[in-house]
Specification:
With about 120 residues, the chain is mainly α. The chain is about 45% helix and about 5% strand. Helix 3 runs antiparallel to helix 4, helix 3 packs parallel to helix 5 and helix 4 runs antiparallel to helix 5.
């Protein structure tokens, strides 16, 4: 059984085709720059969307920009919008909890080896 830190968080939405708008596949493939571009170039994603913030945080953390990643994870944690995310293990996780876990992972330097992605 994979731990949450190794899982892929997937936001369950009826509109599954928009899932990759959050750079999910690029992050899975280890293409952080492409993920950032996909997310930033998509004007259909609200700038304060928790999945957007978390995925950008992951991409920047993997690129070594811990400060920007921290800001993004904190914004997701403090966001007025709460969404439930489903991990690859099928566990539902509150977006704020996921953001707190991402912050803890960032502090421990775990993003180099993990794939934790949120998508809609």
């Amino acid at each position: 059984m994979l731990g949450l830190a190794q899982g892929i968080a997937i936001l369950a939405m009826a509109q599954a085709p928009v899932a990759d708008n959050f750079g999910r596949q690029a992050l899975v493939d280890g293409r952080e720059t492409a993920a950032i571009a996909a997310i930033m170039d998509n004007d259909r994603i609200e700038t304060d969307d928790p999945a957007r913030l978390i995925n950008l945080g992951i991409a920047y953390a993997r690129e070594g920009d811990a400060e920007l990643a921290r800001q993004l994870f904190e914004a997701a944690r403090d966001n007025r919008t709460r969404v439930e995310l489903e991990t690859a293990e099928g566990e539902w996780v509150d977006s704020r909890r996921l953001a707190r876990q991402a912050l803890a992972m960032l502090e421990r330097g775990e993003f180099a080896d993990s794939a934790r992605i949120a998508a809609r």
